[in-house]
Amino acid sequence: MKSIILVGYMCTGKTTVGKALAKSMGLRFYDLDWYIEDRFHKRIADIFAEKGEEGFRDIEYRLLREAAEFEDIVLSCGGGTPCFFDNMEYMNRTGITLFLKADPETIITHYHISHTVRPLLAGKNDEELKTFITQQLQNRSPFYEQAQYTIDVNVLDSYDKISIIVSQIQQILNLENGKMEN
Ligand code: S3P
Questions:
Q1: CA-nearest residue, atom 10 of ligand 1
Q2: d(Cα 8, Cα 78) in Å, to the nearest integer?
Q3: Is the Cβ atom of 119 under 6 angstroms away from ligand 1?
Protein backbone atom coordinates (compact mmCIF):
# COMPACT_ATOMS: atom_id res chain seq x y z
CA MET A 1 0.00 0.00 0.00
CA LYS A 2 1.21 3.52 -0.87
CA SER A 3 2.27 5.72 2.03
CA ILE A 4 -0.41 7.97 3.48
CA ILE A 5 1.07 11.45 3.79
CA LEU A 6 -0.33 14.20 6.00
CA VAL A 7 0.54 17.82 5.15
CA GLY A 8 -0.57 21.13 6.61
CA TYR A 9 0.58 24.06 8.69
CA MET A 10 2.34 23.68 12.06
CA CYS A 11 0.02 22.74 14.94
CA THR A 12 -2.82 21.44 12.78
CA GLY A 13 -2.52 18.02 14.44
CA LYS A 14 -0.57 16.12 11.77
CA THR A 15 1.38 14.08 14.32
CA THR A 16 -1.55 13.43 16.66
CA VAL A 17 -3.93 12.47 13.85
CA GLY A 18 -1.21 10.54 12.02
CA LYS A 19 -0.44 8.40 15.06
CA ALA A 20 -4.11 7.65 15.73
CA LEU A 21 -4.76 6.89 12.05
CA ALA A 22 -1.78 4.53 11.84
CA LYS A 23 -2.90 2.72 14.99
CA SER A 24 -6.46 2.30 13.77
CA MET A 25 -5.30 0.93 10.41
CA GLY A 26 -2.50 -1.27 11.72
CA LEU A 27 0.14 0.76 9.85
CA ARG A 28 3.47 2.10 11.07
CA PHE A 29 3.70 5.79 11.90
CA TYR A 30 6.54 8.09 10.87
CA ASP A 31 6.91 11.77 11.62
CA LEU A 32 9.38 13.40 9.25
CA ASP A 33 10.76 15.76 11.93
CA TRP A 34 11.34 12.84 14.32
CA TYR A 35 12.95 10.85 11.52
CA ILE A 36 15.33 13.77 10.89
CA GLU A 37 16.04 14.18 14.61
CA ASP A 38 16.83 10.46 14.96
CA ARG A 39 19.21 10.51 12.03
CA PHE A 40 21.04 13.62 13.10
CA HIS A 41 20.83 13.03 16.85
CA LYS A 42 19.71 16.64 17.10
CA ARG A 43 16.52 18.55 17.77
CA ILE A 44 14.97 20.41 14.82
CA ALA A 45 15.55 23.69 16.67
CA ASP A 46 19.29 22.90 16.92
CA ILE A 47 19.50 22.02 13.21
CA PHE A 48 17.88 25.39 12.41
CA ALA A 49 20.31 27.15 14.77
CA GLU A 50 23.38 25.41 13.31
CA LYS A 51 22.57 25.14 9.61
CA GLY A 52 19.91 27.80 9.14
CA GLU A 53 16.56 27.18 7.48
CA GLU A 54 18.24 26.49 4.14
CA GLY A 55 20.35 23.70 5.64
CA PHE A 56 17.27 22.24 7.31
CA ARG A 57 15.30 22.26 4.02
CA ASP A 58 18.08 20.33 2.25
CA ILE A 59 18.02 17.67 4.95
CA GLU A 60 14.22 17.59 4.89
CA TYR A 61 14.28 17.15 1.09
CA ARG A 62 16.61 14.14 1.34
CA LEU A 63 14.96 12.38 4.24
CA LEU A 64 11.46 12.88 2.82
CA ARG A 65 12.61 10.83 -0.16
CA GLU A 66 13.66 8.03 2.16
CA ALA A 67 10.70 7.95 4.51
CA ALA A 68 7.94 8.35 1.92
CA GLU A 69 9.20 5.28 0.06
CA PHE A 70 8.39 2.94 2.96
CA GLU A 71 5.28 0.87 2.46
CA ASP A 72 2.29 0.57 4.77
CA ILE A 73 3.02 3.73 6.70
CA VAL A 74 1.39 6.97 7.71
CA LEU A 75 3.86 9.85 7.37
CA SER A 76 3.35 13.28 8.94
CA CYS A 77 5.43 16.00 7.30
CA GLY A 78 6.66 19.28 8.70
CA GLY A 79 4.54 22.34 7.99
CA GLY A 80 7.05 23.62 5.44
CA THR A 81 7.80 20.33 3.68
CA PRO A 82 5.31 20.77 0.78
CA CYS A 83 6.46 24.34 0.10
CA PHE A 84 10.07 23.71 -0.91
CA PHE A 85 11.61 22.25 -4.06
CA ASP A 86 9.26 19.84 -5.84
CA ASN A 87 8.37 18.12 -2.57
CA MET A 88 4.60 18.40 -3.01
CA GLU A 89 4.73 16.97 -6.50
CA TYR A 90 6.96 14.17 -5.23
CA MET A 91 4.54 13.36 -2.39
CA ASN A 92 1.58 13.28 -4.77
CA ARG A 93 3.45 10.83 -6.98
CA THR A 94 4.58 8.62 -4.13
CA GLY A 95 1.70 8.51 -1.66
CA ILE A 96 -1.87 9.45 -0.91
CA THR A 97 -1.72 13.06 0.30
CA LEU A 98 -4.12 14.66 2.76
CA PHE A 99 -4.10 18.33 3.75
CA LEU A 100 -5.17 19.03 7.35
CA LYS A 101 -6.65 22.51 7.07
CA ALA A 102 -7.12 24.86 10.04
CA ASP A 103 -7.68 28.58 10.67
CA PRO A 104 -5.06 30.74 12.40
CA GLU A 105 -7.19 30.77 15.61
CA THR A 106 -7.18 26.95 15.81
CA ILE A 107 -3.45 26.86 15.06
CA ILE A 108 -2.71 29.36 17.86
CA THR A 109 -4.84 27.38 20.34
CA HIS A 110 -2.98 24.17 19.45
CA TYR A 111 0.37 26.01 19.62
CA HIS A 112 -0.27 26.99 23.23
CA ILE A 113 -0.91 23.41 24.31
CA SER A 114 1.97 21.93 22.33
CA HIS A 115 5.33 21.13 23.91
CA THR A 116 7.30 21.08 20.64
CA VAL A 117 9.75 23.94 20.05
CA ARG A 118 8.99 25.52 16.67
CA PRO A 119 11.79 27.87 15.60
CA LEU A 120 9.57 29.80 13.17
CA LEU A 121 6.96 30.62 15.86
CA ALA A 122 9.13 30.87 18.98
CA GLY A 123 9.19 34.16 20.91
CA LYS A 124 6.09 35.69 19.29
CA ASN A 125 3.16 37.06 21.29
CA ASP A 126 -0.43 36.27 20.26
CA GLU A 127 -0.78 39.31 18.02
CA GLU A 128 2.52 38.61 16.26
CA LEU A 129 1.58 34.96 15.93
CA LYS A 130 -1.74 35.85 14.31
CA THR A 131 -0.09 38.19 11.77
CA PHE A 132 2.73 35.78 10.99
CA ILE A 133 0.54 32.68 10.69
CA THR A 134 -2.12 34.43 8.57
CA GLN A 135 0.54 35.67 6.16
CA GLN A 136 2.42 32.40 5.99
CA LEU A 137 -0.79 30.40 5.53
CA GLN A 138 -1.62 32.57 2.54
CA ASN A 139 1.79 31.93 1.01
CA ARG A 140 1.73 28.22 1.76
CA SER A 141 -1.88 27.39 0.92
CA PRO A 142 -1.26 27.00 -2.84
CA PHE A 143 1.15 24.17 -1.97
CA TYR A 144 -1.06 22.50 0.63
CA GLU A 145 -4.02 22.70 -1.73
CA GLN A 146 -2.22 20.48 -4.22
CA ALA A 147 -2.82 17.56 -1.84
CA GLN A 148 -5.28 14.98 -3.13
CA TYR A 149 -7.70 15.43 -0.22
CA THR A 150 -8.47 18.23 2.25
CA ILE A 151 -9.74 17.63 5.80
CA ASP A 152 -11.05 20.52 7.88
CA VAL A 153 -9.54 20.08 11.34
CA ASN A 154 -11.03 23.15 13.00
CA VAL A 155 -13.25 20.78 15.00
CA LEU A 156 -10.14 19.46 16.71
CA ASP A 157 -10.52 21.40 19.95
CA SER A 158 -10.02 18.40 22.20
CA TYR A 159 -8.41 14.99 22.06
CA ASP A 160 -11.73 13.10 21.90
CA LYS A 161 -12.39 14.72 18.50
CA ILE A 162 -9.40 12.97 16.93
CA SER A 163 -11.52 9.90 16.22
CA ILE A 164 -13.89 12.04 14.07
CA ILE A 165 -11.01 13.10 11.84
CA VAL A 166 -9.59 9.57 11.78
CA SER A 167 -12.92 8.11 10.58
CA GLN A 168 -13.22 10.80 7.90
CA ILE A 169 -9.79 9.88 6.62
CA GLN A 170 -10.59 6.17 6.74
CA GLN A 171 -13.66 6.74 4.60
CA ILE A 172 -11.53 8.56 2.04
CA LEU A 173 -8.97 5.76 2.06
CA ASN A 174 -11.65 3.10 1.64
CA LEU A 175 -12.90 4.92 -1.46
CA GLU A 176 -9.31 5.24 -2.67
CA ASN A 177 -8.77 1.47 -2.22
CA GLY A 178 -12.02 0.81 -4.10
CA LYS A 179 -10.73 2.91 -7.00
CA MET A 180 -7.48 0.93 -7.09
CA GLU A 181 -9.26 -2.43 -7.08
CA ASN A 182 -11.55 -1.51 -9.99
C1 S3P B 1 8.18 23.90 10.09
C2 S3P B 1 7.37 23.00 10.74
C3 S3P B 1 7.87 22.08 11.77
C4 S3P B 1 9.34 21.75 11.53
C5 S3P B 1 10.13 23.00 11.41
C6 S3P B 1 9.65 23.93 10.30
C7 S3P B 1 7.57 24.84 9.10
O8 S3P B 1 7.08 20.88 11.75
O9 S3P B 1 9.49 20.97 10.35
O10 S3P B 1 10.07 23.65 12.65
O11 S3P B 1 8.30 25.43 8.30
O12 S3P B 1 6.32 24.97 9.11
P13 S3P B 1 5.58 20.80 12.36
O14 S3P B 1 4.64 21.22 11.29
O15 S3P B 1 5.44 19.34 12.68
O16 S3P B 1 5.55 21.67 13.54
A1: 118
A2: 8
A3: yes
